[in-house]
Design goal:
Layout lengths: L1 E3 L2 E3 L10 E4 L18 E6 L1 H4 L3 E5 L7 E3 L20 E8 L7 E2 L1 H8 L8 E5 L10 H5 L2 E2 L1 H10 L3 E4 L24 H8 L5 H4 L5 H8 L3 E4 L5 H4 L3 E5 L10 E3 L3 E4 L14
Parallel strand pairs: 7-9, 8-10, 9-11, 11-12
Antiparallel strand pairs: 1-2, 3-15, 4-5, 6-12, 6-14, 7-13, 13-15
Protein name: Kynurenine formamidase
InterPro entries: KFase/CYL, KFase_sf
Pfam family, one: Cyclase
């Protein structure tokens, strides 16, 4: 048992179910880190104890803040909204893999094959730990994250991955988004000269000619993407887990903030009920 503000609860790793629960979501709330073109999260207390004897809050936010899942309709017109995606796509077993990366490095299909090609199964959830969840703040994280490139998306399609999550800013390399020389960008034009120096003289338009190609490949093949994974990610890296990450039942939603949870059943005694009548 754990005591929280004077009230006892069963713990994440000490409970009657015999399961271990690991939070893989970053915090959401006042001044949570934001992608460069989003407005700040706004939270207002509409009712509070001194006024009403209850606490009720109003939130103004994009759903693409903190740890969240994209609906295919977020990028690919005519594809499913978040409420239209069947529920099995928000639950399942899979892997948490370590693929350490530095500033602006690519996460490739070769990286994925090396990290988990021997263990991946069709229908798996795949969570990628690059180490960048440790840098999740408003500073360098969004501009300088490593990122998935098309070969990684093609590998996931080939392997039958159901959902991919990662501790980076988007389902694409940052320079393949509006942060770089893409549609609606560049939001951070000073990165052009910095990239040229970093890359040894390359033009960022040559290295990133397409706008969000990974989003497009994944979503057109029914693979959902979870961005900004964090929390206790290191604790489950290198393990096969069960994951749950259900979004709101939001009509025509383009994505949703989620509580991504990894579960481990070491005793193998817990079972989902069979629906017997009572």
């Amino acid at each position: 048992m754990v005591k929280v503000r004077g009230i006892e609860f069963q713990g994440n790793t000490d409970n009657d179910m015999g399961l271990e629960f690991y939070n893989l979501s970053h915090r959401f709330g006042f001044q949570n880190p934001n992608w460069p073109y989003f407005q700040d999260t706004k939270i207002e207390r509409i009712h509070y104890m001194a006024k009403s004897g209850v606490l009720s809050q109003r939130i103004t936010t994009t759903m693409h803040a903190t740890t969240h899942i994209d609906a295919p309709a977020h990028v690919v017109q005519g594809t499913p909204f978040i409420d239209e995606v069947p529920l099995p796509h928000f639950f399942g077993t899979g892997l948490v893999v370590s693929i350490p990366k530095k500033k602006w490095e690519s996460i490739t299909g070769e990286d994925l094959e090396k990290a988990c090609g021997h263990a991946i199964r069709k229908g798996d959830v795949l969570i990628i730990n690059t180490g960048w969840h440790h840098d999740y703040e408003d500073g360098d994280y969004f501009a300088y994250c490593p990122g998935l490139v098309p070969s990684a998306a093609e590998w996931m399609v080939e392997k039958g991955v159901k959902v991919v999550g990662h501790d980076t800013q988007a389902n694409d390399h940052p320079l393949a988004t509006a942060i770089g020389p893409q549609r609606n960008g560049p939001l951070l034009p000073h990165l052009e000269a910095e990239y040229k120096e970093w890359s040894g003289g390359n033009d960022w338009k040559d290295d990133f000619p397409e706008w969000e190609p990974v989003h497009n490949i994944l979503f057109k093949n029914g693979i959902l993407g979870i961005e900004n994974v964090g929390g206790d990610l290191d604790a489950v890296t290198g393990k096969r887990c069960t994951f749950a990450f259900f979004p709101w039942n939001w009509d025509r939603g383009d994505g949703c903030i989620i509580r991504l949870v990894a579960m481990i059943d070491k005793s193998q005694n817990f079972r989902i009920d069979d629906g017997a009548a009572f």
